[in-house]
Amino acid sequence: MSWDRIPVPRAFRCWSLRRASETALQNSRRAVEDQLKICGHKRDDDVFELFLSKKELTEVIDLSRFKKLKYLWLHHNKLHGITFLTRNYCLTELYLNNNAIFEIQGLHYLPSLHILLLHHNELTNLDATVKELKGMLNLKILSLYQNPLCQYNLYRLYIIYHLPGVELLDRKHFAFANNVDKTVFDDPEDAVFVRSMKRSVMTFSSMNWDTVPTREERYLEEEGTEPAQMLTVTLR
């Protein structure tokens, strides 16, 4: 006896997805309210940090009501995206590691962000990720390791080039921004001279054939004749 697969109506599938999303948002709202009770906050303006890690969250409610929020922990959840941080302009530290995030669209709304941890996620598009982070002029600490995009060739150089303000990438220090000479010279020629002195030195050596004796000269060579000399040219 065979059983034919009965197709599920599209309306029912949409209803199921909507119901699942509503349930996820309810769980998120409950987690936020629990944190507010634990910290004793009665006003939204009093909230400077939220600890929402390890809550099995798949979605997060809009957090724009917390306009003075500075620290947000959401690591070790099951998030897929970031759409809940549209007006949290004061946020300076955001911990999103160990989730299932595959895109970070929405992070460019956070100009004050100083620390961003995104390691152990599912980010694959390096260009889109960097584009979203370019507007964060205050970003100093960034982690992206254990994402598929880290498999790209020259991944670190690409990040360093496009985000020169970052000082700690994937737990490794570099000072790309601090290597830029910011000294201002009154005379442009002084600036050119100083810059030229910092270039790498290139040296080329070759035989000075004017000092090499011919066969006849070698035959008639007398004692005290100077040997052939090398000609060296140094360039910057």
From TrEMBL:
<dbReference type="InterPro" id="IPR032675">
    <property type="entry name" value="LRR_dom_sf"/>
</dbReference>
<protein>
    <submittedName>
        <fullName>Leucine rich repeat containing 72</fullName>
    </submittedName>
</protein>
<dbReference type="InterPro" id="IPR042655">
    <property type="entry name" value="LRC72"/>
</dbReference>
<dbReference type="InterPro" id="IPR001611">
    <property type="entry name" value="Leu-rich_rpt"/>
</dbReference>
<dbReference type="Pfam" id="PF14580">
    <property type="entry name" value="LRR_9"/>
</dbReference>
